[in-house]
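DeoR/GlpR transcriptional regulator
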Amino acid sequence: MKPRIQRHENIITLVREQHYMSVEQLAAALDVTPQTIRRDINILSEENILRRYHGGATIGDVLESELQQGRRNSRQDEKNAIAQLIAEEIPDNASLFLSIGTTMEAVAAALIKKRRNLRIITNNIYVASMASARDDYTVIITSGVVRPIDGGVTGVATVDFINQFKVDYAVMSTHGVEADGSLLDYDYKEVSVMQAMMNNARVRFLGVDHSKFNSNALVRLGNITEFDKVFTDRAPEAAMQKILQAAAVEWLVPADLSNPTSQVQ
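Predicted structure tokens:
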């Protein structure tokens, strides 16, 4: 294999694993100059494999599509269990925001089986399609630009649309939760939409499986302490439990996956 082709494969592997790598990090990891890495990133960006971003590279459309398909097939049992817990906490006749992500699609499926007369506002075209099958639901999909990779609707128009409403619940997920409770994601446009949902909901629920804890991303959404309840598939680590307890945030775990089932201070 030619050295450049091998280097490109190594760059793709590193970015796929970390989701973002700076030029300097890649140069050090592969023992080449930053100028070489920049040229490689330009080539891979033209092929939509990577995307140039703030002095480095993040995943492009090709890799994002692969990862999204992987997310759809991964930890589905855990996501379904989290979704069942969330559905138990939302009453009939409620209004709610549902955000982007496969966990939110599981939540929509659980709600359809359990709850009547919901009013759902979502920027997830898959959630909208699923929920609209119920003739007692009012389903509103936001305006904005549809991402072909995951069916998410984002952008300034989406934020403006969300700001027209005040709902009972905002239900969302995120890519990463750092040790200090910071919530992180990759797309600043998606983060802006989720922040608008948080600001326009009376109660906020966060659903994240255990893989999201201590996972990194680029854009800060907020803090885990800004939510009323956190739903996950494993009990958080002791340090995270202290953060949640200090903020009086309840965390809930499915009884058949981990114990205790909930904790609040």
